[in-house]
Amino acid sequence: MAGYNKTFELTVDDIDRIETALRLHKQAVSLDRIELSEAQGTASDTSRAGRIDAELIAIHDLLGRLHNQKIFYRPTKAQKVPYVSG
Question: For the chain, which residues make up each domain, given as ranges?
């Protein structure tokens, strides 16, 4: 039986594209959720709202995991001037 590929060869640009696509998808799903909450609620709307909420949570968690794997640059050499980011 085949196993999972645990090594990926993604560039920084690839990760940026994935994050951008996830953010755009999250925005579209969020707008669907807002429209659904403004409409009159039926039983099918309640189950659809639950599915939308679960999808939003999954996307948010995935974006968080991607963010937590990033290594942010900070100069390591001690300089006479304090480091100010941004």
Answer: 12-68
Residues whose CB falls within 8 Å of the CB of residue 41, separated by 6 or more in sequence, listed in order: none
- Residue 26's contacts (CB-CB under 8 Å, 6 or more residues apart) are 56, 59, 60, 63
Cβ–Cβ under 8 Å, residues 17 and 61: no
Q: What tens-digit pLDDT sequence spans the chain (86 residues)?
A: 778 888 889 888 999 999 999 999 999 999 999 998 888 777 778 888 999 999 999 999 999 999 998 887 766 666 677 767 66
